[in-house]
Specification:
The structure holds two protein chains of two kinds.
Chain A lengths: L11 H9 L5 H16 L48 E6 L2 E7 L1 H4 L4 E4 H7 L1 H9 L9 H9 L4 E5 L9 E7 L3 E3 L2 E6 L4 E10 L5 E12 L4 E9 L3 E12 L4 E8 L4 E10 L5 E10 L4 E10 L5 E10 L4 E10 L6 E11 L5 E10 L4 E11 L2 H8 L5 H17 L5 H14 L7
Helix pairs in contact in A: 2-6, 4-5, 7-8, 8-9
Chain B lengths: L3 E11 L2 E12 L3 E5 L6 H9 L4 E10 L2 E2 L5 H6 L2 E4 L6 E5 H13 L12 H14 L10 E2 L5 H15 L3 E5 L7 H16 L8 E5 L13 E6 L2 E6 L1 H10 L2 H6 L1 H17 L1
Parallel strand pairs in B: 3-10, 3-11, 6-9, 9-10
Antiparallel strand pairs in B: 1-2, 1-4, 4-5, 7-8, 11-12
Classes of the chains: A alpha/beta, B alpha/beta.
The structure holds adenosine-5'-triphosphate and magnesium ion.
Chain lengths: 439, 277
C-alpha cells in the first residue's frame, strides 16, 4: 500500500500553515510560538548528554516527518485492549493526532465533566483551561521533544473533573498511528479538589510492524484530596519512534496510581515524573515492560517529594527477549522541607535471552534528614529448575516459560485493581513469549 | 499383563560425575516399593533421572514404560505418559496461583495429545474436583489461591505435592521423602491419602509407587511389597517389609559390612561432596 502521508519536515512554512489551519485562542498561539522558537534553537540530544548516553537516536531523521494533517485517511482503528469487558463512562480517540470521535455518558457530562479531544475543548473552554496550560507541568523548554510537542501538539485528550465529582466508570482514550504517521498528542487531566477518576489510555499502531513518530506529553494535575488512576498502554508498531514527557502534580492528600505498560516501539525514551507538591500526598507507579527483537525502551522516572509526609512507591518490571534492551533510571528526590517522606523504588528484570540487556540505575537525592527512602533492583534469568518442575506436571517447555514470565509480572498486576488492565497486559505478554533453550 | 516401569542397568552422571552405577528396578502397577539408603546414596538422583531432569545425564542403561524406551522423552512427555514425582524439595513459582497451575497441568496430563492454546478443562468442573480433593487432604481452600510453593512451610509443600498427585492421577508415582516436614498427624493423613489415591487411578488400575523414605510412617498404610537399599549408586539389597523395618530401626551397619565395595564408593562420594562445599 503506497503511503499517502507526505511530510515536508518541521519547517517554518509548514508551522505557519499548521497554525493558520487552527482556530485557537491568542494565548495558546503565543505559547506555541515560544515553544517553536525553542524547538529551533535546540539540537537533538547527543550521547554526551548523560540522560541520553545509553539511547542512540542518530538514525532518527526528524525531517522525514512533519505536522499532523487535518483529516483521517480512513476509519480503521486498532482494537482497544483496555476497554475489554469494561463499562466505560466515555471514550475518545485520535488517529495520527486527528480527532476520531468522542462519547461521554450524560451522567458525567451533566456533572460538569469535560472529556474528549483537547484541541476541540480548548477552543470552547479556553478561559477554564488557560491556567493549567500556563502551569507548564511539562516544561516546554526541557528538550527538543518537549518543545516540539508544546509547539505543535494536535489531537490529544482532555479529562477535566470538577470539585468532588467522582467518576466511577473508567474513561478510555485511544491514540492510533498509521504506518509512517505522526502523533503529537497531548494529554491533560485535571482533577479538581476531591474529584476521582480512572482513565485508561492506549497508544497503538494499525500495523504490528508499523513505523512513525510519536512525540507526546502527558500532564496530570491532581488537586487536594483528589484521586486519579491513570493507565497508559504503549503498543506501537515495532518501527515507531516514541518520545514523551509525562508528569503528574499531586497536591496535599491527593493520590495517583499510575500504571505504564510498554510493549511496542522501535525506540522509546520517556521521562515519567511525579511531583508530590502538598503534604500527605501519595503516588504509586507501576511499570510493565516486554521487549523483543531489537527494541530499545528507556525510562527515566522521577519521584519528587516537595512536601512533608508524602509517600511514593515505584515498581517497574521488565522481561526482555532476543537482542532487546531496556534502560531504567530512577531518581527519588526529596527536598529540604519534605520531612517524613516514605519513598521506594524497585526495578526487576527478567532476561529471556543472553543477548538482551537491561540497565538499571537507581538514584537518590535527599536533602531532608528525617526520611525513609529505599531502592532495589534485580536481574535474573528464567530458573531452569522451575521450568523442569512445571514440565514434570505436564507443561511443555514453552508453556512453562510463559507461565513463569506471567508469574514474574503478577506482583505488579496484584497492585492494579483494574482487571482489564492486567488481563490485557498478561495476554499480550503471553503471546510474545517464546520458549528459551535449556540453560 | 500389568503395566510396568522398568529400569535396567541405569548409570547417571551429574556434571560429568557418576552418581548411579547400574541400577535395576522393576515396578508393576499396584505395587508399593520402598527405597531406602543413606544420605547421598543416589535416591533422589534416580527419581530425577526417571522424570527426565536435563542435568541428570543417563550414560548407560534403559528406562522403559511398558516396554517402551522413555529416555528420548522430555519431562513433559513423561508426565503425560503417567509418571509423577513428589519432590524432596519442590520449586516455588512466584506469581502463579496453585489453582491455575494445577488446572493447566491437569488438562495436559489428562489429554496427553493436547496442543498449546487448546481449551483447558472447564473451570467449574475443575474447581469442584480440586475442592473435593483438598477436603480429603484437609487442606484449606484458601491454599488454591496461594502462589505455587511460594512461602509454603515444609509441611505445606509436601501436602501440595500429594494434592498434585491426586489431581494428576499418575500410573507411577515416586514420593521422595514426602514424609519429611510433616507433623505426626499429617504423616498419618498423608499415608492414608496416598493409599486411597493409589486405589482410584486412571484406567481403574492401581498406582505403582516408589516411596523414598528414612522412616516408617508413610509405609503404615502403604505396606511395601519390596524394599530396596541403595548404597554408592546401586541397589545392593532387595527384600520385603521386614527389610524396611530392620533399616529404620537398626540403620545401615549390616549393609555396609555386607557390601564393602559400595560402602567405599559411598564414603568417597560423601567426601567429594563435603570437599565441594
Ligand atoms: N544437581 C546436582 N548437582 C550436583 N550434585 C548432585 C546433584 N544431584 C545429586 N548430586 C550428588 O549426587 C549424590 C547423590 O545425591 P542424591 O540427592 O541422589 O542423594 P539421596 O540419596 O537422595 O540423599 P538424601 O537421603 O540426603 O536425600 C550426592 O553426592 C549429591 O551431592
Ligand atoms: Mg534425596
Amino acid at each position: 500500500m503506497p503511503s499517502t502521508l507526505a511530510f515536508t519536515g518541521f519547517t517554518q512554512e509548514a508551522f505557519d500553515a499548521f497554525l493558520a489551519a487552527r482556530d485557537e485562542p491568542r494565548w495558546l498561539v503565543d505559547l506555541r510560538r515560544q515553544a517553536w522558537i525553542r524547538f529551533n534553537e535546540l539540537a537533538l540530544p547527543a550521547r554526551n548528554d548523560e540522560e541520553w548516553a545509553r539511547t542512540d537516536i542518530r538514525l532518527l531523521k526528524l525531517d522525514r516527518f512533519g505536522f499532523p494533517a487535518g483529516e483521517i485517511l480512513d476509519g480503521d482503528m486498532p482494537h482497544a485492549l483496555l476497554a475489554e469487558g469494561v463499562e466505560l463512562g466515555g471514550s475518545t480517540a485520535t488517529r495520527d493526532s486527528v480527532p476520531a470521535g468522542t462519547q461521554l455518558s450524560e451522567k458525567w457530562a451533566s456533572q460538569g465533566v469535560l472529556f474528549g479531544d483537547l484541541s476541540e475543548l480548548v477552543a470552547e473552554h479556553g478561559d477554564l483551561l488557560r491556567p493549567y496550560f500556563e502551569r507548564r507541568v511539562v516544561d516546554p523548554h526541557r528538550d527538543k521533544f518537549s518543545a516540539l510537542n508544546a509547539a505543535a501538539w494536535a489531537g490529544g485528550a482532555l479529562l477535566y473533573v470538577p470539585r468532588r465529582v467522582r467518576v466511577e466508570q473508567p474513561l478510555h482514550a485511544m491514540s492510533a498511528l498509521s504506518d509512517g504517521g505522526v502523533d503529537l498528542n497531548k494529554t491533560l487531566v485535571i482533577l479538581e479538589e476531591g474529584a476521582e477518576a480512572t482513565f485508561l489510555t492506549e497508544t497503538a499502531s494499525l500495523a504490528a510492524h508499523g513505523g512513525g513518530l510519536h512525540c507526546g506529553s502527558i500532564e496530570l494535575i491532581v488537586e487536594p484530596s483528589a484521586r486519579l488512576r491513570y493507565v497508559n498502554l504503549q503498543n506501537w508498531g515495532d518501527a515507531v519512534w516514541h518520545f514523551a514527557h509525562q508528569k503528574a502534580h499531586v497536591a496535599s492528600r491527593g493520590g495517583i496510581q499510575w500504571t505504564i505498560g510498554a510493549l511496542g516501539s522501535r525506540l522509546t525514551k520517556v521521562n515519567q515524573h511525579v511531583a508530590l507538591t502538598g503534604e500527605d500526598a501519595e503516588a504509586q507507579v507501576n511499570g510493565v515492560m516486554f521487549t523483543q527483537g531489537r527494541q530499545h525502551l528507556s525510562y527515566n522516572t522521577h519521584q519528587h517529594h516537595l512536601a512533608a509526609h508524602c509517600r511514593s512507591d515505584l515498581l517497574y518490571k521488565a522481561a526482555l527477549q532476543d537482542q532487546s534492551r531496556t534502560v531504567w533510571r530512577g531518581m527519588i528526590k526529596v527536598d529540604r522541607g519534605a520531612q517524613r517522606t516514605d519513598a521506594y523504588q524497585r526495578n526487576d528484570n527478567l532476561m529471556l535471552a543472553a543477548t538482551a540487556r537491561a540497565d538499571s540505575i537507581p538514584g537518590l537525592e535527599i536533602e531532608a534528614d528525617d526520611v525513609r527512602c529505599t531502592h532495589g533492583s534485580t536481574s535474573g534469568r528464567v530458573d531452569q529448575q522451575q521450568v523442569f518442575y512445571a514440565m514434570t506436571r505436564g507443561y511443555t517447555r514453552q508453556e512453562a516459560v510463559r507461565m513463569i514470565v506471567e508469574g514474574f509480572f503478577q506482583q505488579v498486576f496484584d497492585r492494579i485493581p483494574i482487571e482489564s488492565v492486567s488481563e490485557a497486559l498478561g495476554e499480550a505478554i503471553g503471546r510474545r513469549v517464546r520458549a528459551i533453550g535449556e540453560q | 499383563m500389568p503395566e510396568t516401569l522398568q529400569i535396567t542397568n541405569l548409570h547417571v552422571a551429574v556434571e560429568g560425575k557418576p552418581i548411579l552405577r547400574g541400577v535395576h528396578l522393576t515396578i508393576n502397577r499396584g505395587e508399593v516399593h520402598a527405597l531406602m539408603g543413606p544420605n547421598g546414596s543416589g535416591k533422589s538422583t534416580l527419581g530425577n533421572a526417571i522424570m527426565g531432569h536435563p542435568n541428570y545425564e543417563v550414560t548407560e542403561g534403559a528406562i522403559e514404560l511398558n516396554g517402551q524406551d522413555i529416555l528420548a522423552m522430555d519431562a513433559s512427555e513423561r508426565a503425560r505418559a503417567g509418571i509423577f514425582m513428589a519432590f524432596q524439595r519442590p520449586m516455588a513459582i512466584p506469581g502463579v496461583k496453585m489453582a491455575d497451575f494445577l488446572r493447566h497441568a491437569t488438562t495436559n496430563v489428562r489429554n496427553p495429545q493436547r496442543k498449546e492454546g487448546e481449551e483447558l478443562i472447564p473451570m467449574r468442573q475443575f474447581r469442584k474436583e480440586l475442592t473435593a480433593k483438598m477436603e480429603q487432604l484437609k487442606m484449606d481452600v484458601e491454599f488454591a489461591r496461594r502462589y505455587v510453593n511460594d512461602g509454603f512451610s515444609g509441611g505445606e509443600m509436601k501436602r501440595a505435592e500429594i494434592l498434585q498427585m491426586a489431581m494428576l492421577r499418575p500410573k507411577f508415582a515416586i514420593l521422595d521423602e514426602t514424609d519429611s516436614g510433616l507433623d505426626v498427624d499429617a504423616v498419618k493423613l498423608a499415608s492414608q491419602s496416598i493409599a486411597a489415591i493409589a486405589q482410584e487411578q486412571e484406567g481403574g488400575a492401581e498406582m505403582g509407587i516408589l516411596i523414598i523414605t528414612h522412616h516408617d510412617k508413610l509405609l503404615e498404610y502403604n505396606t511395601p511389597d519390596f524394599t530396596h537399599v541403595m548404597m554408592g549408586g546401586r541397589i545392593v539389597e532387595t527384600g520385603g517389609v521386614e527389610l524396611a523395618r530392620e533399616l529404620y530401626t537398626s540403620g545401615y551397619d549390616r549393609i555396609r559390612s555386607s557390601y564393602p565395595e559400595e560402602a567405599a564408593v559411598e564414603d568417597e562420594m560423601q567426601q567429594a561432596a563435603a570437599a565441594a562445599v
